Amino acid sequence: MADFSGQLINLFAALLLLVSFAMLSQRRVLSLINLFALQGLLLSASTAIVAYSSHQHHLYYSAALTLVLKVIILPWILHRLIRKLNVKWDVETLFNIPTTMLVGIALVVFAFNLAAPISEMAGTITKSTLGIAMASVLLSFLMMITRSKAVPQVIGFLAMENGLFFAATSATYGMPMVVELGIALDVLIGMVILGIFFFQIRETFDSLDLKHMEKLKED
Amino acid sequence: MNGILLQLFQDTLVVLIAPLLLGWVNQCRAWLQNRSGAGVLQPYRNLIKLFHKDAILANNASPLFRSTPYILFASMWLAAALVPVIATDLPLSPAVDVIALVGIFALARVFISLAAMDIGTSFGTLGARREMLVGFLAEPALLMVFFTAATISQSTSLVTIVETLAHKQFVIYPSLAFAAVAFVMVLLAENARIPVDNPSTHLELTMIHEAMILEYSARHLALIEWASALKLLAYTTIGIALFLPWGIAEAGNWKAMPLALAALFLKLMAAGAGLALLETVSAKMRIFRVPEFMGTAFLLAVLGMLIHFLLGS
Questions:
Q1: Contact indicator for B11, B82 with CB cutoff of 8 Å
Q2: What is the ipTM of this complex?
Q3: Alpha carbon distances (Å) from B144 to A49, B105, B154, B299
Q4: How far apart are CA B61 and CA B119, in angstroms?
Q5: What's the pLDDT at B74?
């Protein structure tokens, strides 16, 4: 049974990586939000399986928190935001997508190599998925770098938090409950503040393209 | 003796049911699009009609142009016959190497492209160039898919891969899931299915496969169409062999044969329906998006292999 849940965790980890790549290659903001919700769902499911197989009861709370926050509330806020901002256009990327994907593969190889010695030391059932967690953090980072619009960048930021959460689960069976609650609150508040920022940016520049922010610096 | 009989049976079976699979896919597509469809036997009727017509050749057609349909048909039949569909360990089994299979597909592609350029019409050349564009991107992705499966079973022989995957305790392979998605994308591109090419159109801007065979008529065209059906069957059975190998019979085990046949038909029906569904929900993409599509397939296959090395499963 433990063997089977280990396989399930590996499967969810692989799917998580797949969703990260899908987000990297996605051109539409709406699909990007749906993918983000899917990533949260996978994260929540894999956390629940880890909790079940390692008998760590606090992980159930983490899984429930992830489910509520990242699958329901945050995507709902994002949907509302883009409806209000009326930004359903295609996302512009700074590089073309195949190049980004190739860079992504290089990042995955790098992350896997980086995680290999760490996961040898960890004694958890999920230790081999640490590489995937680090890869998805780096991929979300890459997504933030390659997008010029504000909304995809914020989604990249949230996806990066997902990756960090997954890394914590796979390396040490999650963070202490207080820390986790703190981070959840931070993400929620951050999202609300960034939402206000979106409106401010749009009012100032008539666009959500962050290239305009360069005008702000004084020569 | 048993083995040879079984091999002959399998080879005849694939060549006979190939148009049926095509007809089933078309029928499913018709149903999904709320049309009544022409029935699953329509490809056979088309083939019979084409075989009864008189062949017309262009004045400047070279022997290459005449011989290509036969080469195409032979290589596709060989590919479809080599894939273990109902039984493993047949007399031809040692020949079923995945790299050789890719080679057979490449041979067919080279000949059809040369034949398309042979007459010298602009459509043929255009089709050949597009086919080569798709082909050179699809081939590495297909090879990577095969390598992912080969690293799991430590062999590039398709029969060994099937035996390893079919007769082992049930294990979830995340790497194979990636490879499966990549394989479906390659299948769509290689068989001129919808996101990449539309098999039922002769619109000059979009056609790839149809552009290459515009100059063919009658029995030549029939052979090419039959070869396309065989190619679709070969790809589908390769997919089944790699990702859903359960239920296949071992050589000499005649008792398992009916079960294996039933499993094969069920799996082919499901695969055909799935293919029709995929084609219905997706839109044909611009030809310049195809490299991106194939790049994604390659990426997924590479990811599958990386994940295999990371997770060891």
A1: no
A2: 0.72
A3: 31, 15, 14, 9
A4: 6
A5: 93
How would you class A203 by CB atoms within 10 Å of its CB: exposed for 0-12, middle for 13-18, buried for 19 or more? Answer: exposed
Q: What is the 8-class DSSP label of residue A28?
A: B
Residue type at B270?
A
Distance CA B126, CA B108 (A): 18
| B148 close to A (CB below 8 A) | no
Q: DSSP secondary structure string, A47-108?
A: HHHHHHHHT-THHHHHHHHHIIIIIIIHHHHHHHHHHHHT--SBPPBSS-HHHHHHHHHHHH
Which token pair is B160?
A: 């060994």
Which residue(s) pair with A149 in the sheet?
Answer: A209
- Single pTM value for the model: 0.83
Q: How far is CA A119 from CA A109, A210, B112, B140, B247, in A?
A: 15, 38, 51, 32, 38
The predicted-structure confidence for B234-263, as pLDDT tens digits, reads as follows 999 899 888 887 777 766 667 777 888 888
Give residue for tokens 């996978």.
A42
Q: Among all residues of chain A, which has the CA nearest to that of B306?
A: A109
Amino acid type, A180: E
The C-alpha atoms of residue B113 and residue B110 are separated, in whole angstroms, by 5
Nearest CA among B240, B110, B100, B226 for reference residue B184 = B240
Dihedral of CA B76/B79/B85/B89: which sign?
positive
Longest dimension (CA), chain A: 65
- Residue A16 has which token pair? 């998580």
Identity of the amino acid at B222: A
Interface of B with A in 162-191 (CB under 8 A): 171-172, 174-175, 177-178, 181
Side-chain-side CA neighbours of B311 within 13 Å: the count stands at: 31
Which two three-digit tokens encode residue A84? Answer: 């209000």
Question: Phi/psi at A217 (nearest 5 deg)?
Answer: -75, 145
Structure tokens at B136: 């050179």
For residue B171, give the nearest of A7, A25, A97 by CB distance: A7
Q: Are A42 and A162 in contact (CB under 8 A)?
A: no
Q: What is the pLDDT of residues B141-166, one digit of tens each?
A: 999 999 988 888 888 888 888 877 77
